[in-house]
Request: fold
Amino acid sequence: MRPLMTLISLITFILLSTPCLASRWNLVLLTTSGLNGQLIPASEKEELNNGNMLRTFGGFARIQTVFESYREKFPGETITIATGDDLLGESIQEDQGKIVFGAMNLMGFDVSTLGNHEFDRGSNFLAKCLTNKKFPTVVSNLEINPSNRLLKHVKPYTVIERNLVRVGFMGLILPNLKMISNPGTATAVKSNLIEIARSTALKLKKEEQANIIVLLSHLSIEDQKTILEAVPEIDIICGGQSHKDILPGQELIARDAPTPGIMVQCGARGRFVGVLKLQIEDGYINKHDWTIIPVTASISPNKKTFDFIQANINGLQSPTVLATSTQPLNTEVKVIRIQDVPVGKLVSSILQDKFKTDVAFQNSGGIRGDKIIPAGPIKANDVDTMFPFGNTVTIIKVTGETLKQVLERSVHKLPESSGGYLQTSGVKYTLDLKGTPQEITVTEQGKPIGIRTKGSRISNIKITDKSGKYIPVEKDKMYSVATNSFLARGGDGYIMLKNSKDKVETFIKISKVIKSGLTIMKKIPVNNEITTLNLDRKPFFPTLKTAK
Reply:
């Protein structure tokens, strides 16, 4: 991927500065995928032959510069799109989306859909945030209670006209929303995706006279492909859930229709801007060109957007140094969602020490950042980046049998990665990937309601006693667990925790506990212990796969 990004970076200047044959195209879609509230550029370490260097990517003000360059080249022909998971970050709790949506308003976004992270603080909170948004939000498979304020801000579809082309936009969100987020009881997600996609597309064609249909998707790549193959009325899918890049040449989906389907998306956190140029004749896409533009330090930030962000973000990000780490802390998705990592042990051990429980665990999907924090000072804003959801600590008592079911749930997707993979403290176990993975039963709305197959991948579970020695877990004995409120509610399919009757909600934010723990530590101890073991009792290190 590095050589490809370098090549794309080399041609970015040409793409942004060389006049195009604008007459060839009559519609240009500018797309982003999963901005994740990454208002300012993010840093990452790049390995070079002569050492390492930090480079930056993304940032709303840089993205705006890319947008403006294409709007100048194609006046009156561009539509700017966001595909959900834009509203994220600890600051959102305080500003109710004013900075993220305020910046997106300045950037000239025309339409967006919702992702699962927009619902992390509930539908009512999302409704408050959406009052700051000046462009339409479309989700076609979301049922909203008429009494909920969200109904005012979310529509099943919309039509935008550019250059005499009427473009119909619809949106689809993950059917398992209730499992992975917190939408509450006022919303329900319809899971019959193909039926909804077809009926909405036909309505846009027949009732709204749309020439082209675009689906803004917060679904898996597999679901998107299935929909394009089954619903020829949809011309284009702009995706955003999986954080994958669809590179030029990979976007066409063959199907039984006059034209192939086009499926595009461009990573996450503003790393790329996707540009889809279209030549439309007689209501059909005659030609297209798809490219992704790396948003690097070579792109100057738009001053108006930059000034807006700087004026509002100061004070929300604390530079206070909490502790010093002697080793890098890796929060990369491809690593943390598939195996034990030091940052996961650090977080879980702080929870266990603070609340004096037998065990502590944190879902890997709840540790954000997707980067390597270099060895050295760990700041308060590093913790805020890792814990943007506002989850609080919950103490639960479970039997040894329930603890086994929790661990079975943690590893059920391996060797594929999962946000539900647990980073643990105080527990050690043996993993056999040849064993039967746990399966849960979910409703049509994606709500988990029970365990269908218990699973047989986990054995030899041990926890630490007061002396720090590992002792076997007893099936019927009760054990105390410190975890987050998301998992305690049954998030990520942990239905066995939701059903636990012996739980105490502390109402103390995870981020606050971690900050306090780091301050006490001052120097973070090295903990490379691997507590997930193979049958031969050696550490479990799976072959890494990209998270879905």
Remarks:
- The two ends are 18 Å apart (CA to CA).
- The chain has two domains: 2-313, 321-533.
- Confidence is low (pLDDT under 50) at residues 16-22, 47-51, 544-548.
